[in-house]
Amino acid sequence: MTQRIPPPTPHIVIVGAGFAGLACAQQLGGSDVAVTLIDRRNYHLFAPLLYQVATAVLSPGEIAEPIRRVLSRHQNITVLLGEVEGVDTNARQVRVDGRAIPYDELVLATGATHSYFGHPEWERFAPGLKTLEDARRIRTQVLMAFERAEMEADPTERERLMTIAVIGGGPTGVEMAGAVAELARLALVKDFRHINPAEARVVLLEAAPRILLAFPEDLAVYAERALKRLGVTIRTGTPVEDISEQGVTLKDGFLPASVKIWGAGVEASPVGRWLGIETDRAGRVRVNPDLSVPGLEHVYVLGDVSLLDGPNGRPLPGLAQVADQQGRYLGQALLARLKGRKAPGPFRYRSRGNLAVVGRNSAVIDFDGTHLRGFPAWVLWGIVHIYLLVGFQNRFLVVMRWLWAYLTSSRGARIIAEEVAEERVEQRDSTG
Ligand SMILES: Cc1cc2nc3c(=O)[nH]c(=O)nc-3n(C[C@H](O)[C@H](O)[C@H](O)COP(=O)(O)OP(=O)(O)OC[C@H]3O[C@@H](n4cnc5c(N)ncnc54)[C@H](O)[C@@H]3O)c2cc1C
Predict the structure, then answer these.
(1) 241 is an active site residue
(2) Is the C-beta atom of 40 inside 6 A of ligand 1?
(3) What is the mean pLDDT of the chain?
(4) Span 132-169, pLDDT tens digits
(5) Minimal CB count within 10 Å: which of 77, 102, 172, 375?
(6) With a 6 A CB cut-off, is 47 part of the ligand 1 pocket?
(7) Of the listed 62, 65, 105, 175, which one is catalytic?
(8) What are the chain's domains?
(9) 315 near 326, Cβ under 8 Å?
(10) pLDDT by residue (tens digit) across 37-73?
């Protein structure tokens, strides 16, 4: 009797354990395909709450979860910590830290980073908010600005130290501006003797005629009013021309500011270069409706690095909910295909609403034409974010922190630790 040789197990390599890659891996967990998930970090980051780390509401560990822990029960998934440097689609290999890892199917979900519109030198002075390191750096800069102002005798320099410029009036800029204003006016207000933190100036700069361009106008108007109530100065139609240590050059003058936060542009990770194919101006790879890459076999691109039109003919937005739905879809589609079952139809995005927070008890939500604002929107925003956080421990800690911050207006994560030394060195270097 001849022994039946089992077919070789297909090997799926997923690069990136963000919203898209992790959702895809979870769909494949427990199946009989071999999955390798590669990320350059050992944790999955919940980016929508980064601004709360940057403004000392939450600690970094509360919005991140080790990838191994999330996937530990799935014996068929191997997690590798490494930086992918390229892809050889002919040999079907991924290059990771100088090694080659073979694949049968490749899923690329490496997300996006900041774009400084051709001015990479601005990054030094105006960090963006994409990683935990960014959030810690911004938190240190904001807290250190008040510390320095407390010691500063010159009133002009004190005013500069207490001016925080947020560049970009999208959801990230709006959230940051509101949260920094609250930090100054509520959490720090009683703690200094020579300055009044409530007098800090938070200036939100936007090149377009209004903030929150992706939201309907009435919600943007509401957000603008709510920000002004918090003391934020909003300057629309004001493109930034230059950024330096001293402040921001605008078309109509110079804004002295010690802290500059970049929330204006994004650029996809270099997947287009790895694959040797064209991208759009933001570096995104156009994909077929099943998320495969035109002209390449066994390669899929999803999440922020992909470009796919939605039902309204416009590209799907760079949102966690798009990335998560694409990851789930692709995981199911790959399983069906590898098992010889009928693959699902094209990917269809179901919007669960567009949300932005404008302070500690106010938010705006657009559910495809139904608009919600104020406190009810904020409560719903909180519930959605708790639900989406990975890990029970994180959920519990975040709810406790929010309750504490809400009831006492205090911030639990104000310790400036190891970054102070780095900050001092940077300060010394920049002043020569
Ligand atoms: C401050 C901020 C607030 C946001 N708020 C919201 C919100 O309220 N609602 C919402 O829906 N969306 C929000 N977003 C957008 C959302 O976070 C993104 O759309 C989502 O993270 C995209 O998921 P992704 O899987 O494509 O990429 P990511 O989540 O960015 O994951 C990419 C992963 O790839 C890894 N990686 C990158 N390059 C490599 C490499 N070369 N080798 C190995 N690994 C690599 C990274 O380490 C990362 O883990 C926000 C984003 C930010 C930055």
Answers:
(1) no
(2) yes
(3) 92
(4) 999 999 999 999 999 999 999 999 999 999 999 999 99
(5) 375
(6) yes
(7) 175
(8) 11-40+82-114+266-338 (3.50.50.60), 120-264+360-430 (3.50.50.100)
(9) no
(10) 999 999 999 999 999 999 988 999 899 999 999 999 9
